[in-house]
Amino acid sequence: MKKIILIICASFSLGLVYSQRVSELENKTKCGNLQNKSETSLKLEIQSNLEDNYDVKFYWLDLSVERTSTNVEGNVTINAVVKNNPLDTFVVELINDLTVDSVKINNLNKTVIHSNGLVKIPIGAPITIGGNISAKIFYHGSPPSGGFFSGISHANSPSWGNEVVWTLSEPFNGFLLLPVTQIK
Prior knowledge:
- There is one protein chain.
- By secondary structure, the chain is an alpha+beta fold.
- Helix content is about 20%, strand content about 40%.
């Protein structure tokens, strides 16, 4: 049942991503100034410049959730290629409400520094530009519940006759994904 729900959620998310794409040509001609602003002034405070040192090629989410609790546990595998600078520290964003249990970089256990919404993983010997990196991060916890469009929610639904857990979160900077015809 969990796999079916995960497949449905992934399919729905994929449809949203592709339905909001703007072609490169339209993006350059009509949204050039907006794109420049989104890359600089609108960058979230918790982001780190170290995230610019790799290009993600693949995410794999393996989550365990139940309908009776907002607790989540699982792992994410991130495959990426190093760009710009040799990579000596891998950084990802993860809210402080979730606890990192362990991390593997290229199948080697690594130590973790998790603070201020960032997970920093010192690699040791730097990975050169063009090199591949695979990070597997195991975590657990209860994300915050913040309302209809943020966080995770739990309810006992009389209309369905069962308990339910859901999330309906907008991505950061989601307002930038307007169709080109609406940008004047």
